[in-house]
Amino acid sequence: MNEHLHTALELAFCRIPVLPLRGKVPFGNCRRCADNACGGRPNMKTAGPCACPGPCHAWAAATTDPDVIQSGVWRRAWMRASAVAYHPGGAGLTVVDLDHADAVTWARETLPATRSVPTTRGEHWIYLGRMQSANALRPGVDIKSTMAYARYLGPGTGRMAELPDAVRALVVKEPAAVRPAPQPVTVPAPAGGGACPHRTPTYLDRGIAMAEQRITAAREAVHATVYRTFLAVLSTHGRCGCLTEAHTARLFTAAQAKGESPRHCTDAWTNARTQLGL
């Protein structure tokens, strides 16, 4: 049996939707879909509502059906394929594609450890959970999950972690403006205060320290990094009332050390709370 076909069947048995690649892209449209008659886009990661039996529509063609994978059209594609790809979102997974060494370093300093797979220039970090896919979130960092495909490069090493808020926050865009009129600059904090009912104080202190480090390590897009960091902190602790003014002040101080104004810190915090419905 062809090696790629064998790998594809093993993945399909594990309920991971697969498709063949030629080079780094899926196979192009078949004659039935010529000139995008079905609404799809050849060789792209998007696809139309196509009933074509061939593997010609990227992530939308990915399947776990062994009969389809071994059918005549697909078998011929596997014989010409250079690699196996899979649809992470279809398997309930998210791949953080780290394209070079600097991106890998950033991930090790910023994201929770999870299963990793070496790539030609960097690594794939795989989390359990699906989310919106996006490209170029920061230098060398893409998200591949729903409506996207990733090249299968082996099982990887390490235990697969749950998809963290820190990864979800990467694709959240900060609102363009804040509605309220300018107010005196203060350090806001969620109401409540006191001990967190579902996390230990050590967990909270470690989270704040990691957030400070994330802001301090930002080499570019500081404005967006500050907002995403505030969003990640609030998504974990914003509803339980464990954050105090001292915690918030630490985050504001780290942001201002990177050149952010007190007003922007207040606006970013307010926007993050609004985004989360706090």
Question: TL;DR of this structure?
Answer:
With 278 residues, this protein is an alpha+beta fold. It has helices at 3-13, 58-61, 66-69, 72-80, 101-110, 165-168, 201-216, 222-237, 245-257, 262-276, and strands at 18-22, 25-26, 83-86, 93-98, 115-118, 123-128, 134-138, 141-144, 150-151, 161-162.
Q: Could you please describe the fold and organization of this structure?
A:
This protein is of the alpha+beta class. The protein is 37% helix and 14% strand. The chain has helices at 3-13, 58-61, 66-69, 72-80, 101-110, 165-168, 201-216, 222-237, 245-257, 262-276; strands at 18-22, 25-26, 83-86, 93-98, 115-118, 123-128, 134-138, 141-144, 150-151, 161-162. A hairpin with a 4-residue loop joins strand 5 and strand 6.
Please render the helix and strand layout as text.
Blueprint: H1 3-13, E1 18-22, E2 25-26, H2 58-61, H3 66-69, H4 72-80, E3 83-86, E4 93-98, H5 101-110, E5 115-118, E6 123-128, E7 134-138, E8 141-144, E9 150-151, E10 161-162, H6 165-168, H7 201-216, H8 222-237, H9 245-257, H10 262-276
Helix pairs in contact: 7-8, 7-9, 8-10
Taking Cα atoms only, what radius of gyration do you get, to the nearest Å? 22 Å
What's the helix count? Answer: 10
Which whole number gives the mean pLDDT? 81
Low-confidence region ranges: 41-49, 176-187
| Class of secondary structure makeup | alpha+beta
Shape: elongated
| Record field, number of beta strands | 10
